[in-house]
Amino acid sequence: MNERISNFLTERITANDFPSAVYLIAEKGKIVYQNSVGFAVVEPERISAKIDTIYDLASLTKVLVTGLLASRLIERSEIDIEDLVSEHLPDFALQKKSEISVRNLATHDSGFAAWKPFYLFADDFLTGIAKKEQLPFSFERINRFVIEQIANAPTVASLGTQVLYSDLNFLTLGFLVERIVGIPLHHYFTTECISKLGLLRTFLGGQPALRNEIAANEVGNEYERQTCVEKFPELQIPQSALRSHLIWGEVHDGNAYFMGGVAGHAGLFSTAEEVFKIALQFLPEYTQLLKPETCELFRTNFTKGMNEDRSFAFQLASTEGSTAGTKMSPESFGHNGFTGTSLWIDPVKDRIFVLLTNRTHNHPLPFVNINSVRRRFHDLAIEELEKR
Fold it and tell me: What is the CATH architecture of 3-387?
């Protein structure tokens, strides 16, 4: 552990930013500092966070699952970064989105809106979910429904002109990966990553049986409920559309939950140490799953001149206001998760920074924006590494 970093995170717990935090800082492929502080669960019981506590990683799924798997397909020439999505998902050709490429999805300059609650547009499916009996659908049918919804969704910006971070991009990229490999995303990730790296506490879709080992999230999806009301005031929001119980041991994201717990944008659960093991795959000196040259995808700026610097799946530290802080190399790449998670990788210094929190748990709306905490954490971590 590092006392200075642990004390800082403990202070943020006292300030009610989040109830728990687990961090890991690594250099040159080795863990240097790691520790846990606070409570992974506050209600209905108190469970202390441990260094092997499992967290819902939320949008870290985009990079650790979908981005990683897509890059494997690129290096195997099964897809090309400039492939048109419509070549693999014909709905995109039919709906006049035929010019969107794999790269546009991975760098978020496709022009799609940030989010859409697909579960509000599928009444029959929701009725089945609510009844929990004789379900009149399969999750394959739900995925088919979501693909059609995305293909029909209007874009809100011109293709390739600006970065608009969107779940729809990685939902689509996940579907594209599934179409290429011919098996569900979670099966492919299990065989290609979890099994090959020997991960024991990483899984997709939640595990209610392990919930005492998993950090809890909010009661219900109140944040999503309010967002639905604000963005879609014309729609009725049925009680079955959003959960009202404590979200603990199941995926927090509403669309991922609707899709069976697994999607290209959310659904991954893991520990800080196993996130570190996956993160090593993006560094050429340590990767076991990729060719070293493939790792250039993650530090290359594909959106030069736009409002944000993005590589393949990641944001770059050269982006103004990124959560990398002030001391990381500009080529560093990282990602945040809505539940309070983050991962940053510095390929110049061979450093990895993992910070897992559960900021939605036991906290009324609005949730605290913890980006300033992330920046300070990274600056402190680098200061402590430099002392060594």
Answer: 3-Layer(aba) Sandwich (3.40)
Q: Give the pairing of strands 30-41 and 55-56.
A: unpaired
Report the Cα 194 to chain-centroid distance in Å. 17
For the four alpha carbons of 209, 69, 138 and 129, in that order, the dihedral sign comes to positive
**Which pairs count as long-range contacts for 255-261, CB under 8 Å and 24+ apart, including other chains?**
255/117, 255/118, 255/119, 255/146, 255/167, 255/171, 258/118, 258/119, 258/122, 258/125, 258/129, 258/142, 259/139, 259/142, 259/143, 259/146, 260/139, 260/142, 260/205, 261/204, 261/205, 261/206
Q: Is the pTM of this model over 0.85?
A: yes
Give the sign of the dihedral formed by CA 135, CA 138, CA 139, CA 144: negative
For the chain, give every domain's residue range: 3-387
**How far is residue 315's CA from residue 298's CA, in Å, rounded to a whole number?**
9
- Count the alpha carbons within 13 Å of 243 in the hemisphere toward its beta carbon: 19
CA–CA distances in Å: residue 121 to residues 118, 145, 235: 5, 10, 9
Q: What is the CA radius of gyration of the chain?
A: 20
Residue 160 CA to residue 162 CA, distance in Å, equals 6
DSSP 23: E
Cα–Cα distance measured from residue 93 to residue 365, given in angstroms and rounded to the nearest whole number: 41
- With beta carbons less than 8 A apart as the criterion, state whether 53 and 24 touch: no
Question: What pLDDT tens digit does each residue of the chain (388 aa) get?
Answer: 999 999 999 999 999 999 999 999 999 999 999 999 999 999 999 999 999 999 999 999 999 999 999 999 999 999 999 999 999 999 999 777 999 999 999 999 999 999 999 988 886 555 554 444 444 446 788 899 999 999 999 999 999 999 999 999 999 999 999 999 999 999 999 999 999 999 999 999 989 899 999 999 999 888 999 999 898 888 877 766 789 999 999 999 999 999 999 999 999 999 999 999 999 999 999 999 999 999 999 999 999 999 999 999 999 999 999 999 999 999 999 999 999 999 999 999 999 999 999 999 999 999 999 999 999 999 999 999 999 8
CA–CA dist 209, 217 (Å, integer): 16
